[in-house]
Each structure stands twice: as structure tokens, then as C-alpha cells.
């Protein structure tokens, strides 16, 4: 079976979700082709087809690629004609049709059994490509796809829902959001959660010894409004006011850095909170070992690999009830789920966790580590993706 996966760019090797999926499919004898918008990053796990470039300020180069597209159009006339006819039926003007032929030519020239869009937003403008090449069409949901983008662009997936053959969701909540956003409940779907390398993220070979009474808390997140870091800092201010001794580390970079630094200053948390920026994924394990509590108090979150890794490393995990987080962490079993946007409730829960008896903390972390090994391992995820395309 030949499977095409559409992404904006090749995944880095630390992005286990797509890398693991590709390896698993190849291991089961399937050919995988990656279709990307830009391919600057080296990626050699499978064939990578990059979209033809657009040169707005270099007419000579642009004319070269227009000629190249014209020759490919002639060579793959029947496929391109089917694509154009369908676009016209759906009301796309001739200029729009020509543009879509150009940007999708790297896919239209390939024969596939499945064309799978790694994000729902990646399928926009490409809804009719799969039918044109006579392939089945699949699409995956992420948090941004279902929880945020449709708010800004209502009914954005109307055409997509009419063309898709099967959908993949990483959480039940995101699937329910997709139904709210117009997905037909009769379209087949499969839930396949993110997974991690449980042999690497394993507390057993990296048990950590506390060197002080200071509670060490951490979060791994892009510095973006949806991660709820402002609410987290407000909760920690309440802990400080109660006299609780803690250190909080935020790992990640993003557009909210300046804002968060100012909030840290405004709340008087300069000594307690540090933002250390982006670090190599290989060092995340070392940082997890040095901390006690992991907080992911997002406003919106599809699932979150970092939370899985934290559970695997034996941290006490506190998350919000945003989308897939309440499936990632089971309340009062593998951690705690706190209603989002409520710093008071978050602060209260963290204070309660700190005061828990040692045997109760161990019961929670043992359950979480065991569950991660069973439910969120790469082997299980790979097998589920094989099933996705064959059943």
C-alpha cells in the first residue's frame, strides 16, 4: 500500500508522533511519501515531495516553474482535468483553479492508495486532490484544528467533510468538537493518541533524590496564550502568599515571552520563576528528573506529549480540563484535572498535592507510569495506524 502524508514541513526526529507512524507503516511493508510545503530540513526516513516554489519578485524563475507545471499538466492531463472539473463544480473561479493546480501539482502527479492530511487545516484548498488521483482521503485532528481555527472561520471544513473517507482524532473531546463543527457522525473514525518512547522516558533508571525542601514545579510549553501560563503564574503567586517554598521552571520559547516576563515581575515572582527557553528534547528527561510536580494548565490542548513524558518519569501531574488533557491524565488516578482559567483552584490543588502523604503520592505516580507504558507506547501507536488504513 502506498500512503501519502501531507504536512507543512518534514517532522524533526524529536517529533515522535509522525516519525513513529512512518517507521511503523514501513515496518509493515507500506510505502510512505511525505508531501510538504517547504523542505529545508533534512529528512531521510521516506521520500519527500516539496511543493513547487512561488517567486513573486523573480519573474524568470517563476516562468520556469510555470512551464514545468504546464509540462506536468500535459503528462497528467486526466488527473488534472478531474481536479479542475471538481473545483469548478464547487464554485472555484478559473484563476483560483489554476492556482490550486500549481500548488497541488506535487501531489497530483503521484499514484497513492491513501492521502492523509496530518492536520485538518492542511487539507484546506486540497479537498479534491485525493479524488482526482483516485485515492482514499484521511485527515487528523489536532487541538488548533477543532478548538480554535473554526471559531475564526466558521464552516471552514464544510467541503472537507464532504470528501473525507476516514478521520483520525487524538482525543474523544476533539472528535466531539469535530461533530460540532459539521463532521458527519457516519464517517468512520479512529482514536489514536500520541505516544512516547517508554524505554527512554523511564523513572526506574533515573530516580531522583531531593536535595532540599523546595518544591520544584515545571512546564514544557510553547509560550503562547493557549498554554494558560498567565493563569499558572497567578496561581503560583497565591502559593507564595501562603508561604509555600517553590521553584517554577518554564521550558519553551514563543511570542508571549516578554508578556510573561512582565507578569513575573508584576507578581513579584522573579526569584521563584525562571523561563529557560527552548532546550534540546534529549535534555528534557534530565529536567524532569530534577522536578516534583508538572503543570499543564492550558486553555486549549489537543493531548500534549510533554504530559505523557512527565507521567512516565514519575512526576505528580496537574492539568486543566482543556480538550484531551482529561484523557491524558485521569483525575485522582494518574494525576489531577483542574477546571481551566481558575488560578485559585489550581493553587489549592497544588497546595493539596504538596501536603499529600508520601504513600499516596507514590500510588498516583506508580499508576501513571504503568498506564503510560501500557497505553501510550510507540509499538501500540504504530499498530493502530496500520489498522487505520487496513480496516
Automatic annotation (TrEMBL):
Q: Which UniProt keywords apply?
A: Glycosyltransferase, Transferase
SUPFAM superfamilies, per the entry:
UDP-Glycosyltransferase/glycogen phosphorylase
Q: EC? A: 2.4.-.-
Please list the GO terms describing molecular function.
glycosyltransferase activity
Alphabetized InterPro entries for the sequence: Glyco_trans_1, Glycosyltransferase_grp1
The chain's coiled-coil residues are none
| Matches recorded under Pfam families | Glycos_transf_1
Top enzyme class of this protein? transferase
Occurrences of domain Glycosyl transferase family (ranges): 204-363
What PANTHER family does the annotation carry? SLL1723 PROTEIN, SULFOQUINOVOSYL TRANSFERASE SQD2
Q: What is this protein called?
A: Glycosyltransferase family 4 protein
